[in-house]
Amino acid sequence: MGSFMTRRRVLGLIGSASLLHSSGRRLFSEVTAGIGSRVPRFHAATATGRINDPQRPLWINGCWNLWILWNKDFPDGRGTIWLRFISKDLVHWAAAGTSIPKNTTPYGDVWTGSSVIDGANTAGFGRDTVVALMTMPCKPMGGQGTGRWYSNDGGVSFQFDSVVMTNPRAEDSNLRDKVFRDPNVRWHEPSQSWVMCLAEPGQIGFYRSSNLKSWKPSGSLQNAELGTLECPNLFPLHLHGPDRKIAGEKWVLLCGANGTASGFTTGTHYWVGDFDGHTFQPDERAGRWLDGGPDFYAATAFSRNSADPSEPTFAIAWMNNWNYADAVQQKGYIGQLSLVRELRLQLVEGTAIVRNRPVDAVRLLFSATILGKQQIVADGHDYAWPNGAAQTCCRIDLTMSPVSGSRPKAISLSVRGGAGYSTQLGFNPGSGNAFLDRERCGPIPKEGDAWNSRRSVPCDFTKPFSISIFLDAGSIEVFLNNGESSMSALLTAPLDANALKLSATGGQVSISKVKVST
Question: Which of 19, 85, 88, 484 could form a disulfide with 93 if both were Cys (CB 3.0 to 4.6 A apart)?
Fold first, then answer.
């Protein structure tokens, strides 16, 4: 069996498909940014350090500013910093230094939060100051609180101001996790107020402020079935009808959640509903999962103009899972983020569904294209992949269609195969779903359902549907029908495992529009 370290690629934030062919086999002892990378990758010569949550990007001075939680000393030392990256296209990123170092105040290091551009100087630091509010340990105050920081240089560096919220249940001995964290702040134009959503025990709380300092509670959304909630986001989206025309506006509340009780795992959960500036009313109590895979967590949503729902809204997430995050790190994995995705709210059979697909600029990652032929795949007749299609890091696009109105019992698309390894995308026309199975994707970092269980999403086989697969050295991101559903997962196959196999049993399926981008 191989191992994480023998693959010679301690992953960091996702690197480009083309870059990974070379730099994926090198180790460095420092944080580096690679030319053409999706997001700069972290390489380390030892199994230390950890990437955690992405912090909501802001568009400042003609580029996106993304901050991430980074602890270069993990697991030997605690404490995270806000590490900054910049991009013009949400695909190519450059490292831009530390914006907030760790442990520079009596209240501890900085955790997840959000930043805003205070154009009207409501906070008193000056017009267009970048004001960030984030969770801090706040041990002198008994537990997690919200710290306020500000930047007068466009988010390059932040200065600490004060702790503006303290945990009201810090002394509650009945709580195992006194969660009071991950404030997400935005300006609500109709009520002329700053509004915040915050993760609390069994609920997401809502708050209001006129100055980003004095916060008053205004409501909550309670949900104890999803375990500890984290990283809430609240934002408006235009609702698109079946005719693709705008049918209104709705608000979306998403957060990191635990779906183990319902047979899922941790992931990004969301509700669609209405927000009046005080509290959020969901259309459906249960809500839905944004991504059907096991490794799409702590997502943050963002747009250039957060007050305009017609502006494209994007999301980026931490690709990991708290059920095995420590285990993969101990085997030499530093961490990575997902591709940036565009979110779209679509009315589907009377229900508002959030769809997600890669941003259009992702095409800039690839410099060559290999085309495959149209072919009928059936029992004993696998798809004949074109020369050069087997790649460790690439994008695979294809369309599956019924043949004469019929469909096979099962379709299997295996990627990153070889030497006993394979990651399987399965399609079950009879049950109307597609699944991701990584039980044989490589060495298993930690036994358990969170890693081994198949993850599935709905899929309509009565008509042609498209598949887009993004393979990286240590991950797979799958999108069906241009974002109707998605599945994201870490992989542990060695770099030389790149075989492809596409087969069908119990009938025929037409494979067309095959394209492998490298």
Answer: 85
d(CA 164, CA 199): 16
Q: What are the two backbone dihedrals, phi and then psi, of residue 497, each rounded to the nearest 5 degrees?
A: -90, 100
Q: Catalytic residue numbers?
A: 53
Distance (Å, rounded) from C-alpha 426 to C-alpha 413? 6
168-172-178 Cα angle (round to 5): 70
Mean pLDDT for 452-464 is 95
Token look-up 């799958």 returns 478
For tokens 């598949």, name the residue.
467
Nearest to 440 by CA among 449, 451, 429: 451
What are the tens digits of pLDDT across the range 44-87? 333 468 899 999 999 999 999 999 999 988 887 789 999 999 99
Q: In 336-385, at which residue ranges do the beta strands (DSSP E only) sit?
A: 341-348, 351-358, 369-371, 375-377
* CA-based nearest residue to 97, from 38, 18, 162, 153: 153
Cβ atoms within 10 Å, residue 140? 10
* pLDDT band of 472, cuts 50, 70, 90: very high
297 with 268: CB under 8 angstroms? yes
What amino acid occupies position 421? Y
| Tens digits of residue pLDDT in 359-417 | 999 999 999 999 999 999 999 999 999 999 999 999 999 999 999 988 999 999 999 99
Cis before 75 (ω within 30): yes
Task: Write b or e for each residue in 423-454: b if 16 or more Cβ atoms lie within 10 A of its Cβ, otherwise e.
Answer: bbbbbbbeeebbbbbbeebbebbbeeebbebe
- Model confidence over 274-305: pLDDT tens digits? 999 999 999 999 999 999 999 999 999 999 98
Q: CB-based contacts of 507: which residues, under 8 Å, 6+ apart?
A: 378, 403, 406, 407, 408, 409
